[in-house]
Amino acid sequence: MRLAFRGCIAASLLAALVFNQFHLTLEHTVALIALKGAAVALLALAALVGRNGVRSRRLALILVFGATGDVAIEFGLVPGAASFLAGHLVATPFYMGHRRSAVSTTQKALAILLPVIVPLIALQLPADRTTGILAAVYSLALAAMASTAWLSRFSRYSVGLGAMLFVASDLLIFARLGPLAQSPLPNLLVWPLYYFGQYLICLGVLRGLQPATGNRIEPSASYSSGP
User: Fold this and answer.
1) Residue 152 in 3-state DSSP?
2) Can you spell out the DSSP letters for 191-205?
3) For 152-181, where are the alpha helices, taking DSSP H only?
4) How many other C-beta atoms lie within 10 A of the C-beta of residue 198?
5) Residue from 113, 60, 116 nearest 90 by CA
6) What's the mean pLDDT when you consider all of the chain?
């Protein structure tokens, strides 16, 4: 089982790296779009292979919504955002169910500010005001996901950071519709930030869950809920 898990992670990384290598220079054909979707779909499969019961299946569902969004966004921002939104709506109560027992005042303050600041930034980025409003509504769910991930018992260096990278990636997508429309930065950074965020979330959650005996993600690792 451990071999299957590692195979899924390795295949996911390979798919993500190959897509990142060619998505700026090649036309987005069916094969390239499928490769893009496979990157996070393989993380979802890794979560299932990890065999941590209902909780890992919830993680797999969150990642499936992400993989679906990766493909759907190739055909339009709205269908892609709808799939990601569904993932955030599943992820938020999942993280809330794994709250950290002790949280510092500064960490609480950040978690409170995220659902305020992120939608306000998203509102201002697109040049079209209607799109800006839709971006703000979506970003409220995005920020809620990141906020609850930050307050969860999972490692902030993994799950918390991964959620923040997800936020940064989406804000760059909105910036591409406004002030960064002529900049190469969104095209260069959106995919690496997003995928690495999902990768960190996947591994961080799986490490934080108590795995079945003999199916540890890392043979010698101790599972920590530290920062």
Assistant:
1) strand
2) HHHHHHHHHHHHHHH
3) 161-175
4) 27
5) 60
6) 90
Ramachandran angles phi, psi of 121, nearest 5°: -65, -45
Locate tokens 């990142």: which residue? 20
Q: Are 8 and 42 in contact (CB under 8 A)?
A: yes
Taking only Cα atoms into account, the Rg of the chain, rounded to an integer number of angstroms, comes to 17
Q: Above 90 in pLDDT, residue 173? A: yes
> Is residue 154 very low, low, confident or very high in pLDDT (cuts 50, 70, 90)?
very high
Q: Where are the domains of the chain?
A: 2-208
DSSP letter assigned to residue 97:
T
Of 211, 175, 227, 198, give the one whose Cα is nearest residue 38.
Answer: 198
Phi, psi dihedral angles at 152 (to 5 degrees) = -75, 165
In contact, 194 and 165? CB cutoff 8 Å: yes
How far is CA 146 from each of CA 47, 70, 128, 169, 202, rounded to the nearest angstrom?
20, 19, 26, 12, 14
Three-state DSSP class for 99?
strand
Q: What is the DSSP string of 48-92?
A: HHT--THHHHHHHHHHHHHHHHHHHTTS-HHHHHHHHHHHHHHHH
Q: With contact defined as beta carbons under 8 Å apart, do 118 and 171 qualify? A: yes
**Neighbouring residues of 220: CB distance < 8 A, sequence distance ≥ 6:** none
| Burial class (CB within 10 angstroms; exposed 0-12, middle 13-18, buried 19+) of 148 | buried
